[in-house]
Design the sequence.
């Protein structure tokens, strides 16, 4: 489990490095970060709801709205998946 | 032999660099796909957030507001946040520190590490106002640094988080990695810091600016809930703002100047440190770890940037003891 956790962080660092190299200004860098960020929120939400029976969705959404900083492990997992996909997409370009 | 000097990092940059427009389009496409997929699969989610008046994509801003409101409520109601350990009265710990110091048995750094281990949660999280006030007193007593979690009404989204290693920043047009000795392998950041070059040219680079790049910190100003609303005040306020970074695992501390904004929230890191900062905090292999970051209340600019060597500094009234 912990191995997977570190693997994900390493992949994330690579995505961050790609963005840093592509952006010429701070504004460009932040713009790209925010796009990734927004993608993550949708992907993570979808992943969580996939695992939750429909009748619990509203309860989860209420809890998430009340404290959005609390869903941790699932977020780490999904961040890793997205980062991997992004890097694969970018490699295809070359 | 590749025929390239270690300082010629631009070879790698050119080879791996992806065009900004291309990357933005690619990321944007991914974002739209994710948004569409969620809204098709779970239309009630879109409806839920619409009714709450927030966008899922902007949930981080909402979270910052919730955390800010929580800290305020916590301070008012004196209810500790989740994972908070009970804090002894500050005077109690201060007394312990003074007794240990007077008896010359325990190095101050050891006392600090023990205090942080005892009273900080294992996992990093925003600290409560009580916890921050407590640490302010401990830092002041042990290190003699006037560090503040809130300074002039400004506060970071979190003061206890993960720091990650950063590269050198270009100080002036034409600056090269070769002039950032001895830490060359970290390389030079491809872009400029959030406040641009430190000086317009090499001749205008003063010792003070050199020190600012050498001992620089990165904080997530871009995620501050009021960052866009309070411009240009906040940008000016944070530029080269002095902070004290304390490694909560070993007690190493350094004074740094905020010179860049980041890292991206999805990296799991909250702060960044220059190669020099990271080396002092945790040694040559240190790339990431938990730290506390407080502003330094230094209106007369008396606290120098660089390591806080508090093992050599005594508490008030106790003879200096070199350890």
Sequence:
């Amino acid at each position: 489990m912990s191995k997977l956790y570190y693997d994900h962080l390493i992949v994330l660092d690579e995505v961050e490095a790609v963005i840093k190299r592509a952006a010429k200004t701070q504004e460009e860098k932040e713009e790209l970060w925010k796009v990734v960020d927004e993608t993550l929120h949708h992907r993570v939400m979808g992943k969580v709801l996939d695992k939750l029976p429909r009748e619990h969705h509203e309860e989860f959404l209420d809890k998430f709205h009340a404290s959005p900083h609390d869903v941790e492990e699932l977020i780490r997992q999904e961040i890793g998946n997205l980062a991997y996909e992004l890097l694969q997409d970018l490699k295809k370009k070359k | 032999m590749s025929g390239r000097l270690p300082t010629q990092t631009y070879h790698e940059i050119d080879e791996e660099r992806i065009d900004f427009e291309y990357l933005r389009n690619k990321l944007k496409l991914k974002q739209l796909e994710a948004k569409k997929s969620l809204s098709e699969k779970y239309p009630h989610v879109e409806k839920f957030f619409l009714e709450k008046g927030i966008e899922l994509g902007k949930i981080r801003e909402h979270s910052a507001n919730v955390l800010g409101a929580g800290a305020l409520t916590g301070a008012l109601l004196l209810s500790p946040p989740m994972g908070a350990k009970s804090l002894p009265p500050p005077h109690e710990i201060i007394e312990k520190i003074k007794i240990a110091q007077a008896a010359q048995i325990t190095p101050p750094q050891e006392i600090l590490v023990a205090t942080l281990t005892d009273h900080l949660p294992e996992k990093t999280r925003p600290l409560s106002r009580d916890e921050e006030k407590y640490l302010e007193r401990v830092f002041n007593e042990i290190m003699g640094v006037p560090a503040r979690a809130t300074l002039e009404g400004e506060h970071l989204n979190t003061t206890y988080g993960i720091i990650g290693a950063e590269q050198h920043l270009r100080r002036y047009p034409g600056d090269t990695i070769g002039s950032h000795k001895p830490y060359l392998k970290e390389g030079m950041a491809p872009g400029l810091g959030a406040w641009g070059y430190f000086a317009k040219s090499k001749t205008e680079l003063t010792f003070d600016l050199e020190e600012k790049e050498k001992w620089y910190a990165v904080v997530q100003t871009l995620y501050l809930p009021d960052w866009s609303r309070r411009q240009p005040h906040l940008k000016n306020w944070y530029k080269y703002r002095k902070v004290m970074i304390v490694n909560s695992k070993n007690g190493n501390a350094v004074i740094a100047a905020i010179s860049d904004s980041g890292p991206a929230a999805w990296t799991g890191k909250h702060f960044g440190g220059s190669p020099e900062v990271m080396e002092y905090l945790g040694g040559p292999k240190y790339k990431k770890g938990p730290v506390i970051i407080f502003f330094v209340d230094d209106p007369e600019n008396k606290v120098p940037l660089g390591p806080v060597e508090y093992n050599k500094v005594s508490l008030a009234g106790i003879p200096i003891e070199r350890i």
Notes: The CA atoms of residues 55 and 88 of chain A lie 36 Å apart. Chain A touches chain B through 47 residues (CB under 8 Å).
